[in-house]
Amino acid sequence: MKKGQSPFEPSQIDDVIGAICDGLRDGTPQAVVLRSNKNMPDRTTVHLWCKNNPELEARIRDARAEGYDMIAYHLRAVARGKHVDSTGDVQRDKLIVWTDLQLLAKWDPKRYGDRVQVDSTVKHEAADLETMQTQLVTQVTMNPTLRPVLVDWLRQTLAKLEETT
Questions:
Q1: CATH fold for domain 10-112
Q2: What are the b/e assignments for 18-28, b being 16+ CB within 10 Å?
Q3: CA pair distance 163, 165, nearest whole angstrom
Q4: What is the structure's pLDDT at 30?
């Protein structure tokens, strides 16, 4: 068999991806799912399958997202002491919950990460009109979608000027 060639028949790939997705939906990391069964492909093979087939990639992505939700569900139960993984040791359970929350924040930052708020101060200096005009023309020339926005802004600005005079 040549390097990079899959030992799986195309008909088997769907079953293998289904088994991987089942594990991911349960909240099991993909590496653990792949190592749990000697008949599973290695991670490089799965990566190549996904790279060459967006549908498989979407199935794994969706299963992984469901798995993250399952992990979060289990964390809530552990925190309440109502889960099989609860140790009864409050500090240990707290560490388990904290560790998994940190992993969730890294794996799916949009849903489980901290909200990042950016505060910024804009400092500007007076520029000469000719330089600004040249920069504006360059931007509009390079990005034609700016033209209608610019025209609308100019109309509004002129209307405000006419109101004040």
A1: Arc Repressor Mutant, subunit A (1.10.10)
A2: ebbbebbbebb
A3: 6
A4: 92
